[in-house]
Amino acid sequence: MAHGHKLEIFRGLVKFKSNTQKIWGVLAFLTLITAVEVVLGIIKPVSLTDTYFLGMKLINWIFIILTLVKAYYIAWDFMHLRDEKASLRRAIVWTPIFLIIYLVFILLVEADYIYNVYKDGFVSWNF
Amino acid sequence: MNSTVTTAEETNVWGGGNQPLGASYGKLMMWFFLVSDALTFSGFLAAYGFSRFKFIETWPIADEVFTHVPFFHGNYPMIYVAFMTFILIMSSVTMVLAVDAGHKMKKNAVIWYMFATIIGGAIFVGSQAWEWGTFIKGDHGALETKGGRILQFVKADSGERAALRDFAVTIPGERVAHERKNGIWFFDEGELPTYSLNEVIEGFKADPNILIRTELINEEGEKTLLDRKASLAKLADATMVVEGANLIRNEYGSRLFADFFFFITGFHGFHVFSGVVINIIIFFNVILGTYERRGHYEMVEKIGLYWHFVDLVWVFVFTFFYLV
């Protein structure tokens, strides 16, 4: 951190004058995203809950993408990964991302298989 | 930024004192821990996803479970959890401000920002305790069938959830909970529910306005409502009354739902709690001037990383447990 802060977010679209200002800017952005999530969660627009994309409701895709955006700004600006060396940043970020995608893929596919066994197999469980 | 090694240093690469990643030992170890902790949490959340996909048609709808706000009656889905999320993000902000003030060696600013962070963390842990209390106590009550599925009740005219107390009758002469002092001393039983199965069934038969809602989610994404005739037929499958939640059964639906709720939010709440404790220790160190004498506030930065990580995890828990 001795080498100073990078003060642009949104790929240089917004540039803050000081680190403190940047922190408040990021807070405003994170609050906005949370508010959007909560409003969507309460209203649940039919156009989003009835549309499916890759087997999942559109609204859930929106929630997950917004979450990843929030996670990015927490890690990049609050945990100041933006100011760290690229090698450290990559080691921290890509290792878990790879492992998590791997685990989630395996578990969800397996769970879907078990769901089908319960549904179509000769297993009675809902009585 | 600048990773080029000059020749003078090259002769001394193995001599120690190098920081190839530009971060101190302590910071690297904190990151090491955070990455492994992130994998632990993903293990939990992935297991939650597994169980949910396995019972995708019958999983409880979080909007209908977490509807309470302290001091207010009524149905406010998500509001309180959103508030908790905001509190945690806010305390993250005061933590970054503390780190920032530490870099500028402003001791008093660090003290106040650390103090605000601790307060935020305490509010969050308190909120979570309240949420647990509400979840364990339950609201409406339900019946469990032979297959371990949950039957809930709905008022036919308004479409609102009906609680057991709304329609169950009182039948005199029902048995009371067995206690150790009566009879065999080593034999004891847990709490009896407020209403016996018989009282609920008789109350249901007497009140034509009550319908049964099963766990099954229909095409509109809502729980299936049975008509009066099907409800009466379904009632024959009931074996016991369930009120609130514990690790074995809960009134909200799938048994695994409460287990994951307790494990995931509990593990996260434990992280917040330990974060608050460590924050308090470092808060006093700052007041005592430990870091002023050391010449840098890196310890504040390290606990800051941990604190932001807790916030980061909550963002995911919020999405996967409450929103999706």
TrEMBL record, chain A:
Keywords: Cell membrane, Membrane, Transmembrane, Transmembrane helix. The chain crosses the membrane at residues 23-43, 58-79, 91-109. Its main location: membrane. It is a multi-pass membrane protein. It is found in: Cell membrane. Pfam families: COX4_pro. The keyword Membrane applies. This is Cytochrome C oxidase subunit IV family protein.
Automatic annotation (TrEMBL), chain B:
Residues 1-324 form the Heme-copper oxidase subunit III family profile domain. InterPro entries: Cyt_c/ubiquinol_Oxase_su3, Cyt_c_oxidase-like_su3, Cyt_c_oxidase_su3-like_sf, Cyt_c_oxidase_su3_a-hlx. It is found in: Cell membrane. It holds the Pfam family COX3. The chain crosses the membrane at residues 28-50, 78-98, 110-130, 260-291, 303-323. The keyword Membrane applies. The keyword Transmembrane helix applies. Keywords: Cell membrane, Membrane, Transmembrane, Transmembrane helix. It is a multi-pass membrane protein. SUPFAM superfamilies: Cytochrome c oxidase subunit III-like. Its main location: membrane. Belongs to the cytochrome c oxidase subunit 3 family. This is Cytochrome c oxidase subunit 3. It comes from Maribacter sedimenticola.
